[in-house]
Amino acid sequence: MKVLYVFLLAMPLITVDAYSQVIRLSRAAIDSIMNPPLYESEGEILLFEQKSEDIGAVYDTDSLQIVHFNFKNNTDRSVTISRVATSCGCVTAVFPVHPVAAGCTGEISATFNPRGKDGTFESNLFVYTDLSDKQPVSKLSVYANVLAGDEWDYLPQKMGHLRLKHKEVCFSDVEAGNIYTERILCANSGVRPLRLVATILPSYVEFDVEPEIIGPGEEGDIKITVDTSKLPREVGDTLRFGVLVGGIEGIPSKRTIKGIIDLKNSKK
After folding, report:
1. Region 28-48: what's the mean pLDDT?
2. Which of 78, 133, 184, 265 has a CA positioned 20 to 30 A from the CA of residue 17?
3. In angstroms, what CA-CA distances link 115 with 59, 64, 164?
4. In which residue ranges of the chain is CATH 2.60.40.10 found?
5. How far apart are CA 124 and CA 105, in angstroms?
6. Residue 194 forms beta bridges with which residues?
7. How many other CB atoms are found less than 10 A from the CB of residue 171?
8. Cα–Cα distance for residue pair 16/5, rounded to 1 Å
9. Handedness of CA 212, 213, 217, 223 (dihedral sign)
10. How far is the C-alpha of 1 from the C-alpha of 198, rounded, in Å?
11. How far apart are CA 136 and CA 84, in angstroms?
12. Quick one: which of 20, 14, 16 has its CA closest to 4?
């Protein structure tokens, strides 16, 4: 008995049997698998009120979305839905398993999970019955527009539950003997207050946070201050440093704010 394994990663579709024979399927054959032709009498068996549902705009962090397809058995005999196949694993279907008597109604529920999705989405559901084991009697469609649900997307950098506008500060056009400060907008995306400290800090750099404790869901400012009077005497035109932030989770490389000081003007 031959066993076929189907790979959908490349076109044209390739199937491999137990004897390692390679068979190339045409695009028409591929489409028949992904979009099977309907039973010729499909409109005469199950009559749906609507065959498509548009969920609309949802966020990828939203809960499961459920839509319903109501139908009527349009035949003069009982019909049993044997299975409902979906074109995407993020959609699952629930349907009546008992026979639907002639002229009676039923419902198919489709549940869409938006997690991991982005942009315009479409999934098809193919309804099979005891009258059509190989061909679906109906094709249903679910549409959605999935949006990024990260409320901190304006602070793209992450240090544990600390979100930051950026993880680098640049001090340009500095002059000897002056003090300069750069700010980084940040927020606490966690459920516990954050008290940030600097565990590794050069002698010419000061670290401060406003407010001192950033509550859950609150914003703050990280202040990086450079005192040029304390800079090493023998340095080039550019001095780089790092500030290791404590009070948050993560390996040191993920908790480091990088700093650059442009010393060209200070040497004029």
Report:
1. 69
2. 133
3. 8, 9, 24
4. 41-147, 157-267
5. 21
6. 214
7. 19
8. 6
9. positive
10. 67
11. 9
12. 16
Spatial CA neighbour of 25 closest among 86, 35, 16: 16
Integer Cα distance of 157 and 254 in angstroms: 10
pLDDT tens for each residue of 98-140: 999 999 999 999 999 998 888 899 999 999 999 887 889 999 9
d(CA 2, CA 170): 65
Q: Rg (Cα) of the chain, in Å, rounded?
A: 31
Match domain 157-267 to its CATH number in 2.60.40.10, 3.30.559.30, 1.10.238.10, 3.40.190.10.
Answer: 2.60.40.10
* Residue 24 host element (H or E): strand 22-24
Q: Tokens 């591929």 — which residue?
A: 30
3-state secondary structure of 265: helix
CA distance 159 to 152: 13
Q: How many helices (H) and strands (E) does the chain have?
A: 1, 22
- Between CA 66 and CA 56 the distance in angstroms is 12
Backbone torsions φ then ψ of 123, nearest 5 degrees:
-135, 140
Report pLDDT digits (tens) over 169-202: 999 988 888 999 999 999 998 889 999 999 889 9
- In DSSP notation, 94-129 reads E---SPBPTT-EEEEEEEE--TT--EEEEEEEEEEE
Please give the CATH number for the structural domain made up of 41-147. Answer: 2.60.40.10
